[in-house]
Task: inverse folding
DNA sequence: CAGATATTCTAGAGCAAGTTAGAAATTTTA
DNA sequence: TAAAATTTCTAACTTGCTCTAGAATATCTG
């Protein structure tokens, strides 16, 4: 779950992956993408196996060739989304720069990634997962949250970000991002650039510390 | 649905309210509050009637004395939340002031209201409602969204808010607020003041227009 | 083309949750 | 305290969805 893992091919409880042929991996991903979109809109329980299958012109039973059960399918969606999130975070973080610039780069890159590969799974609702799955997801997403908090703190240290409670600020930013998956599809003609402009004003501009000139204070 | 309406006592499809005595109205509200919290955490389908009832030391069947069915119960939660939202918006809007100040007042007042009377219902998921209910909720929430957009636009006109796309900005702010209901309960010791401080940095500070460059406080 | 493998289907079993009916318990009223 | 009204319970019915078994179809390989 730290980024280089096998791409969500292993189910948690010891089940072996059900995809044998090379082609099936692509279809598996297609299922994950369709399931993510539907779950984002309707929620876990109302996203029936029948509907997910129908999005790919299949019957519900066909899904059980790729996943042992619905829980495992959705767990795989979670894993996939967290991995995509982490990949973007790592890529935009390793290029260096002040905290503020890294944060800005990350947000834009995440929007671009989502526009290209479909939305990330809304990861607020995990109550349908079992203990172990929930644990795994929670550990991973907390880890990512920490890394975002660190970027904010780096920014406060290097003077590029206004003093604030990084943990609260990160949650507020996440709220903006999570909600995106719901409303953006309902609006015509929203582009990454327009979104970034709005985020720039409401999210980033306030974080930017232009009182600088000297080193940031704690 | 414009604020002075009967407090969500009428069900949409012609059912009469099932609460006759004066006391039952209080219990009805208690049910709504408990249901809202549980739905926020688990989502509609996983918030079972059994669990909602258990939160009030009741059996599931008892809920049917107050609501004809689960759909109606949740619809009432939506109505209640929208009314509370509107009440806060109206109260903080009529005191006048520049757009920015009205927005700031509104956000703080909403946090205070939620801390006092329980969270608002997360209103992203409405797929379980029927056509008419969805229509009613959508109309009302769009109306509220417009009023928020107008505040932003007023602020741009009176010079207190930075030029931006008000519709996008409002959605981003709503995302922050909606997500609050999920994570705030999981963190120890979060107060309205600390939340407002964070929102001040990540949400409001960027919206504030100090382009005048004079000695306005940052 | 034939056999093997991979993928999807039909049909239905099993289960969990919403719902109902009517009986019990509680509270109110006189 | 007794009757009436209100509120909640028990127990069973109903529905819709997950998941299984095994047959049917498509795809691959030699």
Result:
């Amino acid at each position: 779950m730290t980024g280089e893992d096998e791409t969500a091919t292993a189910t948690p409880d010891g089940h072996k992956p059900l995809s044998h042929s090379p082609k099936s991996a692509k279809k598996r991903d297609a299922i994950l993408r369709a399931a993510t979109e539907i779950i984002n809109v309707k929620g876990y329980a109302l996203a029936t196996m029948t509907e997910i299958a129908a999005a790919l012109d299949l019957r519900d039973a066909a899904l059980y060739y790729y996943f042992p059960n619905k829980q495992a399918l959705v767990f795989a969606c979670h894993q996939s989304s967290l991995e995509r999130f982490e990949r973007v975070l790592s890529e935009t973080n390793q290029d260096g720069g002040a905290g503020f610039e890294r944060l800005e780069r990350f947000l834009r890159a995440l929007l671009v990634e989502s526009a290209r590969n479909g939305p990330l799974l809304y990861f607020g609702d995990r109550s349908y997962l079992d203990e172990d799955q929930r644990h795994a997801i929670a550990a991973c997403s907390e880890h990512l949250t920490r890394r975002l908090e660190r970027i904010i703190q780096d920014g406060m240290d290097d003077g590029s970000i206004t003093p604030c409670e990084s943990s609260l600020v990160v949650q507020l930013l996440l709220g903006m991002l999570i909600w995106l998956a719901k409303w953006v599809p309902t609006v015509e003609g929203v582009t990454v650039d327009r979104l970034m402009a709005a985020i720039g004003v409401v999210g980033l501009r306030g974080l930017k510390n232009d009182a600088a000139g000297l080193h940031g204070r704690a």
About this structure: The helical segments of chain B are 22-42, 49-54, 60-63, 70-93, 99-117, 131-157, 166-183, 192-204. The CA atoms of residues 33 and 118 of chain B lie 7 Å apart.
